[in-house]
Amino acid sequence: MAKCTPDTYNAIYKIAQAVAKNGGKLILSDLFRSRDMQWQSYQDYISGKKEAFSPPPGGSFHEAGRAFDLDLGALKMRLSEFWKIAAQFGVIPIIKEPKSTLDEAWHFDCRGSHQIVYQYYADKHGTNFKPYTAAAASAILSDGILVDAFGENQSEAALQSCLIRLGKNIGNLDGLIGRKTQKALEELGIEFEINAVSNMLIKAENLIQQKFPQEFQMPNG
């Protein structure tokens, strides 16, 4: 069964309607990938079984249910036109120009608030990941899925992800709670409890839901 976040679901549904109005079909070939599925995809790339790049687990929006691959031919339109439709619903490509012959021309992300993490790293506020990897890790964490890079500090990293998306500068997204993280929590009115990370995470997640409600609301019916 395919899994995705509520806002990704809504975007796919609306994009499919728009594509249909133009005589095409939105046919997905890939959506959610488990950690094992992502590992296999990465191994296929490393071994040369597949040519298109696939990152190791912890670095793909597929693992967060926020990326999909599609059948370009079924769209029945220029890729540039599809980009315009997708952009209306917060869905973006990972290639820089709309050429269907390029690797990953079929891949699209619905990054939601995790685009903030991407920009945070692009602006060099964090340095331990490339922007895309940081944003993908943030998205995966927000789904409660393990990211190997953070070891035993999954909750701490998820908390930091929330803080960055709430506009705070806490340095690296690394799962290590320091003074910057403590200051950010206090600025948000969250009591710092070093031995109760889960409590702080719940409060931060509540603020995230208030700021980005569309990421949590499924459509009626």
TrEMBL record:
Spell out the molecular function terms from Gene Ontology: peptidase activity
Q: Which residues form the D-alanyl-D-alanine carboxypeptidase-like core domain?
A: 5-82
Q: Which InterPro entries match?
A: VanY-like_core_dom (IPR003709), Zn_M74/Hedgehog-like (IPR009045)
Q: Name one Pfam family in it.
A: VanY
Which biological processes are named by the entry's GO terms?
Answer: proteolysis
Q: Which positions, given as ranges, span the membrane?
A: none
Q: What is this protein called?
A: D-alanyl-D-alanine carboxypeptidase-like core domain-containing protein
From which lineage does this chain's organism come? Answer: Bacteria, Pseudomonadati, Bacteroidota, Chitinophagia, Chitinophagales
